[in-house]
Amino acid sequence: MAGRIIDLHTHSRASDGSDSPAALVRRAAAKGLAAIALTDHDTLAGLDEAEEEAAATGIEFIRGIELAVQDEFGELHILGLFMPEPSERMLAAIDTLQRNRRSRNQAMLDVLAAMGMPMSMDEVREHSGKVAIGRPHIALAMKSKGYVPSRKEAFERYIGWNGSAFVPRTLLSPSEAIRLLRDEGATVVLAHPCLSKRMTPGRLDAVLTEFRQYGLRAIEAYHSSHDPEQVRLCIALADKHDLLLTGGSDYHGSNKDGIALGAGTGQLRVPYILLEKLREYRRSRGLPL
User: Is the overall model pTM greater than 0.85, yes or no?
Assistant: First the structure.
């Protein structure tokens, strides 16, 4: 298995990526990846299609999801890997998250309209593949109507975290999200922990101490946004807190410029041995693979 590369953090058109789930898997197989996880935001909708395509192409596939949580300092993201068929509780939670997302999208459209940039939800939906709608689709609609020259400007000026039309959404607490995924039987991962500028080494240490007691089992040390120093920090804290390591590109296709599947900004290499260790952990606890 030496030298084999994996990507355990990707997005498809089922949430805010540009590729269909099947196309994403085909792209991963064509690039020679040994395994891929699909981790769309707040949805499991693309997993069956991706899993079927993976069986046809021979690439290893891990069912996943990404949930955003709100702690005292802001938003963090949690991955669930090895997601089983969802329970009624999981489906109800996803339904609530999707309704919150739709309400937030409409609120941002209302703010943009008040700023002289009216758009209907149908116009935004034209850019979403008719599945889940997110801020990347609002950005594309803004560009298509001539309100901004690029998606980047749409985020930087209007709908990004510091934008004038940004509206926060109602999120789960860390304990709610982690326990939900844990109880489903997923392996729970803190995603791209160093992405936020507020994430100091001391805060990350405290976050891992807290999240570990809820059921966190891994940290995404290898990510497109992490520099070598941040990777080393994540590895050191994983060792301190007895956590497994994961990694992924956070690929969104054309909806996130400069991020390549399996390679991130060009230097990302997530070794297959991390997946072996995840499976070894699950096997030791009788969890399905």
Answer: yes
